């Protein structure tokens, strides 16, 4: 029996292998890039069918809605940092030489 899990493309290594992190299973998959949907990139959210018996992967599709939401949340979190509105809470000290 297959279970659909959500995952994210963490990175692509040497243009041939995609490292996919399955969040629910706290598992990493190293898959040939050719096994993933065309045009997949780092940060894309995926829906992966995983066998409950042997852990093998079946269907893999890009979850466009989750990808857009994830990228929007990252952009929102990054915005104040780029504008310099939030300062570090750490006190800066000068080194004595």
From TrEMBL:
Q: Which InterPro entries match?
A: DUF3006
What spans are recorded as compositionally biased (Basic residues)? 88-97
Q: Which top-level group of life is the source organism from? A: Bacteria
Biased composition annotated in UniProt, kind: Basic and acidic residues: 76-87
- Region Disordered: start-end pairs: 71-97
| Name of this chain's protein | DUF3006 domain-containing protein
- Taxonomic source organism: Alkalicoccus luteus
- Organism classification: Bacteria, Bacillati, Bacillota, Bacilli, Bacillales
């Amino acid at each position: 029996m297959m279970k659909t899990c959500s995952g994210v493309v963490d990175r692509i290594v040497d243009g041939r292998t995609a490292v996919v992190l399955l969040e629910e299973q706290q598992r990493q998959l190293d898959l040939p890039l050719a096994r993933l949907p065309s045009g997949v990139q780092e940060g894309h959210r995926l829906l992966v069918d995983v066998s409950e018996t042997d852990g093998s992967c079946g269907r893999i599709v890009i979850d466009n809605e989750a990808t857009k939401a994830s990228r929007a949340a990252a952009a929102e979190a990054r915005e104040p940092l780029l504008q310099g509105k939030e300062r570090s809470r750490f006190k800066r000290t000068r080194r004595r030489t």
